[in-house]
Amino acid sequence: MGKKITDRVTWVGKTDWELRTFHGDELSTFRGSSYNSYLVRDGKTALIDTVWLPYDREFVKKLKEEIDLAEIDYVIANHGEVDHSGALPALMREIPGTPIYCTANAVKSIKGQYHEDWNFVTVKTGDKLDLGSCTLTFIEAPMLHWPDTMFTYMSGENILFSNDGFGQHFASESLFNDTVDPHEVEAEAMKYYANILTPFSQMAEKKIREIVAMNLPISMICPSHGIIWKDKPMQIVDKYLQWANAYKENRISIVYDTMWNATRKMAEAIADGIRAADPAVTVKLFNSAKTDKSDIITEIFRSKAVIMGSPTVNNGYLYSIAGILDLIRGMKFKNKKAAAFGSYGWSGEAVRLMGEELSKAGFELVDEGFRTTWVPDGDVTAKLRQYGFELAPKL
């Protein structure tokens, strides 16, 4: 059975306690997730979003326990990605003529995935759907995080159904933010933003400010992943505006890989020097071969600077560093600084190459980096600490 949100709105989604990776294995989801679908019953009945494809039959079966499917007048597809549209084929086999309200881009994405010519009704910002005592207003939200995305606002209940916007990969028996650990939820919301929405921050900020300027009374924000923002719902909107604005804290991330621990020792010595120069700064070290990449990206998102380290191997850097560099280039981080370091035996190109890649990724490179041969001894370790000490004010 579904879970009541209000007298008119029922959650009919799926909580996925087992999910540990998302988007293939691009994003870690250690706290699970949910695929939130909402049934709105008024004079007319609308279903807002469905669930991920593996749960399509379960979704339709449980939805039948909640309502006679023939009573569903409209389906709202806020976003065509398979974690929200995956149950559409199974559902539409039951109610084939039911109109699906979505953006023009969503028609393209849904048809492209399922190759079905359903009864699509395209909408744009400001279009409305009268349900009786309540009205649904559609708000296009391109690149939050696909071109086809839209939000749906329900007057009367003052609910914003925001799909991927303001969501988190967070599984819970509780539906609302005031019934779960707020620190865990914020951590997952930030992780989601950092790894999924950061490349689109400029568009996200513009769209969010546009929605705020509409002066819609918002009593609840119902995303399609994680908990519902019921207590002070605009707090997550405020967070998004902060995160979208070249976000950084007084933190420095040192990300390294190491073959025989020389580069690890360098990272530790540099960190000691930074802490000596600036006790207030938070310095964290991450071995990129052993640390979850989504967590590394989240930490870089939070940091004002990243220091990247690798030994030189086959005239380049280690492949885990290559992966992180590739990820951060796609993130399009703004207003962050960087440096590079590494050990080598006979060629030593890695430091220069990492610096070049960091620059291409939009980081301000503060110096040429630090490189040394083989394993640092006492003298070199002291130089590394001094390097960290002198590096701190530059960052």
Protein architecture, described:
- With 395 residues, this protein is an alpha/beta fold.
- The chain has two domains: 3-244, 4-Layer Sandwich (Metallo-beta-lactamase, Chain A), CATH 3.60.15.10; 252-394, 3-Layer(aba) Sandwich (Rossmann fold), CATH 3.40.50.
- Helices cover 35% and strands 22% of the residues.
- It has twelve helices and 22 strands.
- It has helices at residues 56-66, 82-85, 88-94, 104-114, 182-197, 201-213, 234-244, 262-277, 293-302, 319-331, 350-360, 378-391; strands at residues 3-4, 9-11, 14-16, 21-22, 27-28, 33-35, 38-41, 45-48, 74-76, 100-102, 120-122, 128-130, 135-140, 150-154, 159-163, 220-223, 251-256, 282-287, 305-309, 337-344, 364-365, 370-373.
- A seven-stranded mixed β-sheet has the order 1-2-7-8-9-10-11.
- Helix 5 (182-197) crosses helix 9 (293-302), helix 6 (201-213) packs antiparallel against helix 7 (234-244) and helix 8 (262-277) crosses helix 12.
- The termini are far apart.
- The mean pLDDT is 97.
Overall mean pLDDT score? 97
User: How many β-strand stretches?
Assistant: 22
Mind summarizing the main beta sheet? 7 strands, mixed
Task: Supply the CATH superfamily name of the largest domain.
Answer: Ribonuclease Z/Hydroxyacylglutathione hydrolase-like
Q: Please report which band the strand proportion falls in: under 5%, 5-15%, 15-25%, 25-35%, 35-45% or over 45%.
A: 15-25%
How would the global form be characterised?
A: elongated
Q: Which fold does the CATH topology of the largest domain refer to?
A: Metallo-beta-lactamase, Chain A
